């Protein structure tokens, strides 16, 4: 009999790995973000073109995330001073201010805890991983992109809104849900509830598939 392999890295709907790390805004811990949503995202390296476009996009959405009680926190396996120089370079060359902190993870402690190191891509650089952590410190979503394709910040924002709306309204979200779209009503859990579903006033296609407006 062999042991069941353990899943490496963090897992959805479990506490996110704790961290205590130096950033461009001083030391930050996961506990510092208690009571807020947190988007923790990694990038392979400072002063690289794809990462620069991503940081410019996150900066452009920063205010939108703040209105959702959400903080941004970047990370790469670069030094603190490399991060500072890159922030200043983005301001000088692109006219964009990066106002959120960036973790300097030279010892790869945070990257390893979050499974940001993917040996098939690189042993020394974090892939484009994004983690959405809720105000209780629970990991609610993970999205990974490869080294050579930038992530969609608009999609990360959409996903955050969907998660918050689903929590508030006790519902699920269909493909590419956006505010104003109908949401999915929880599926009946018993045969009697399934028989009663058609008369409950939802937009019901079949007993397992009903939607409603918010």
What this model shows, in words?
This protein is of the alpha+beta class and 214 residues long. The protein has two domains: 20-151, Glutaredoxin (3-Layer(aba) Sandwich); 170-214, Antioxidant, Horf6, Chain A, domain2 (Antioxidant, Horf6, Chain A, domain 2, 2-Layer Sandwich), CATH 3.30.1020. The chain has helices at residues 49-67, 80-94, 109-113, 153-169, 191-196; strands at 20-21, 28-29, 37-42, 70-76, 102-104, 128-133, 139-145, 183-184, 203-206, 209-212. It is elongated, with a radius of gyration of 20 Å. The model is unreliable at 1-7 (pLDDT under 50).
Descriptors:
214 residues, alpha+beta, Glutaredoxin, Antioxidant, Horf6, Chain A, domain 2, 2 domains, five-stranded mixed sheet, three-stranded antiparallel sheet, 10 strands, 20% strand, elongated
Summarize the structure.
This protein has 214 residues and is α+β, with helices and mostly antiparallel strands. 29% of the residues lie in helices and 20% in strands.
- What is the number of strand segments? 10
> Cα distance, first to last residue?
51 Å
Averaged pLDDT: 92
CATH fold name of the largest domain: Glutaredoxin
**CATH superfamily placement of the largest domain:** Glutaredoxin
Strand order of the largest sheet: 5-4-3-6-7
Helix content: 25-40%
Would you tell me the structural class of the helices and strands? alpha+beta
Largest sheet: 5 strands, mixed
Q: Shape from CA axes?
A: elongated
- CATH architecture descriptor of the largest domain: 3-Layer(aba) Sandwich
What pattern of helices and strands is seen along the backbone?
EEEHEHEHEEHEHEE
Tell me the domain tally: 2
Question: Segments where pLDDT lies below 50 for 5+ residues?
Answer: 1-7
Radius of gyration in whole Å, from Cα? 20 Å
């Amino acid at each position: 009999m062999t042991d069941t392999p353990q899943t490496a890295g963090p897992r959805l709907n479990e506490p996110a790995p704790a961290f205590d790390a130096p950033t461009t805004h001083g030391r930050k811990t996961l506990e510092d973000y208690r009571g807020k949503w947190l988007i923790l995202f990694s990038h392979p390296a400072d002063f690289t073109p794809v990462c620069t476009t991503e940081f410019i996009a996150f900066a452009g959405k920063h205010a939108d995330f703040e209105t959702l009680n959400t903080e941004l926190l970047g990370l790469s396996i670069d030094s603190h001073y490399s991060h500072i120089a890159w922030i200043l370079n983005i301001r000088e060359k692109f006219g964009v201010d990066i106002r959120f902190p960036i973790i300097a993870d030279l010892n790869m402690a945070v990257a390893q805890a979050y499974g940001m190191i993917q040996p098939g891509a690189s042993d020394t650089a974090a892939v484009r991983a994004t983690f959405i952590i809720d105000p209780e410190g629970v990991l609610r979503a993970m999205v990974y992109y490869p080294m050579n394709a930038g992530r969609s910040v608009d999609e990360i924002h959409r996903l955050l809104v969907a998660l918050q709306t689903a929590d508030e309204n006790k519902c699920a979200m269909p493909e590419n849900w956006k505010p104003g779209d109908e949401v999915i009503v929880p599926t009946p859990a018993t045969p009697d509830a399934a028989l009663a579903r058609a008369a409950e006033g939802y937009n019901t296609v079949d007993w397992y598939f009903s939607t409603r407006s918010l």
